[in-house]
Amino acid sequence: MTVADVASELRTIAASFSEELLVARGGAAAHRPVAGKWSPKEVLGHLIDSAANNHQRFVRAQQTDALTMPGYEQNHWVSSQGYQDADWSHLVALWTHLNLHLADVIARIPPSKYSVPCTIGGDAPVPLEAIVVGYRDHLHHHMAQIRERLRG
């Protein structure tokens, strides 16, 4: 998987997955499978947070020779933003447009910046290219989770 592949795939996913999500009713999207587990709304909110955090990483890594960024406490981010109580179609639109924008940002990363070492939180440094591909893999993981919970 290349950086260019990720940009292209994000455009496709943003179009197709958003249509899939909009078919779901708000009640199903708000249902938590068990106490303490995120509802589909909250998982999508987490993906919005992931897009926002990775946007910073993708842009900032291009202006330096090494990037160090904080991690983020995902449960705090999800609960503090009230995704559980948010309008489903609003969340879908926000997620869709963030990912379309990320696809454009990713497509513009110069290949000379793919190897910029990025340190996130306390993790070992990894090249920017790995962060981009990891974003795609993380997205796929949570898309499957949302699909499963909407069927549930």
Distance between the termini: 31 Å
Strand order of the largest sheet: 1-2-3
Q: Can you tell me the CATH topology?
A: Four Helix Bundle (Hemerythrin (Met), subunit A)
Report the structural category.
Answer: mainly alpha
Radius of gyration: 16 Å
| Percent of residues in β-strands | 5-15%
| Helical proportion, percent range | 55-70%
| Helix segment tally | 6
The CATH homologous superfamily is named dinb family like domain
What's the total count of β strands?
3
Average pLDDT rating: 96
Shape: globular
Number of domains: 1
Order of helices and strands: HHHEHHEEH
- What is the name of the CATH architecture? Up-down Bundle
Chart the SSEs and their pairings.
Elements: H1 3-23, H2 26-30, H3 40-60, E1 67-69, H4 74-80, H5 88-107, E2 117-120, E3 126-127, H6 128-151
